[in-house]
Design brief:
disordered N terminus; about 300 residues; alpha+beta; 4-stranded antiparallel β-sheet; 6-stranded mixed β-sheet; disordered C terminus; Immunoglobulin-like; rod-shaped
Length: about 300
């Protein structure tokens, strides 16, 4: 009976312990504040600095809190700041000497991490975590990296099988840029590639040249995120220019000959018309002259016939 009583007495304590274990994680993670960040991606330019801000709601002091910015996992992190000091030992190697803590207003729970010399690999999502004791909250924010590459270079390539092409090349863009040709209407061939070391984009675009169709053309490459573009202008090579000029001269000569032919035909027509009019006038005069002679002869008295006269 004593054993039964002892088991019955221990049963409530076991249930209490199990409930405590269930509620412990909830008690540890529960916080009376929220962490907020920018709703839109933070735009950063390659090689420049970028700030990832976060703030508390309500606006309470964060001086004694641990602030942590990280990528996929909390540790190692992009930057850790606690009690007025940076924790370099918990930082990811690729961010060593590239980040700094910014006190926007710690008394109001506002802070940021500044990433120096932004690279293409910094593009993507980040998490900002504020921790006070056992309570912690986090927010997600995005860094959108954009970069303008080199000025386009245009080169004219002669091939035996495919004729003459203009090739436009450029590199150092992020993300993938847009390319446009002006002055040429034929379809172009464009290839993009990404550097394994820098994650930057390169572009090679070719367009067939139409002999004599245009005298010049241009290639423009743009980054839509930054609304910036770089343009390269070029002229047709000398053989194409001479061919174009010769073709224009031939067309001008053909038009000149056609005009001269039309003028000569007009002159011949007018000359023949004048000749016909002169001939008609002469024929009319001759006809009228013959009629006048006939009229004069008809008006003269006729001679009486002489008969033999007797004396």
């Amino acid at each position: 009976m004593a054993r039964i009583g002892s088991g019955a007495a221990s049963l409530p304590r076991s249930l209490v312990f199990l409930v405590f274990l269930k509620l412990l994680p909830l008690a540890i993670g529960k916080a009376d504040f929220q962490v907020l960040g920018p709703q839109q991606p933070v735009l950063a330019v390659l090689g420049k600095d970028a700030e990832l801000p976060c703030w508390l709601s309500p606006n309470i002091s964060a001086h004694l809190m641990e602030l942590r910015w990280f990528r996929e996992q909390p540790s190692p992190a992009v930057h850790v700041h606690h009690a007025g000091q940076d924790k370099i030992g918990e930082q990811m190697p690729e961010y060593h000497n590239r980040t700094s803590f910014v006190d926007l207003d710690m008394a109001q729970g506002k802070a940021a991490v500044r990433i120096h010399r932004v690279t293409a690999s910094d593009n993507g999502s980040y998490h900002c975590l504020f921790k006070e004791g056992r309570a912690q909250e986090a927010a997600t924010l995005w860094l959108q990296v954009a970069g303008v590459g080199s000025k386009p270079r245009i080169q004219v390539i002669h091939t035996q099988d495919r004729g003459v092409w203009a090739e436009c090349t450029s590199d150092g863009w992020y993300p993938q840029p847009e390319i446009k040709w002006k002055g040429q209407t034929l379809p172009n061939e464009t290839k993009f590639s990404v550097s394994a070391n820098t994650s930057l984009w390169a572009v090679v675009s070719r367009v067939a040249l139409q002999d004599g169709a245009v005298d010049s053309f241009s290639c423009s490459i743009s980054n839509t995120l930054l609304s910036e573009e770089k343009v390269a202008n070029s002229h047709l090579p000398a053989p194409f220019s001479r061919g174009s000029q010769l073709r224009k001269q031939r067309l001008a000569l053909a038009f000149s000959l056609l005009a001269m032919g039309l003028i000569m035909a007009g002159v011949i027509y007018l000359f023949g018309n004048c000749q016909r009019k002169a001939y008609r006038t002469q024929l009319t005069e001759e006809t009228e002259g013959g009629r006048d002679e006939q009229s004069q002869q008809a008006s003269m008295p006729r001679a009486m016939p002489l008969h033999g006269v007797l004396f």
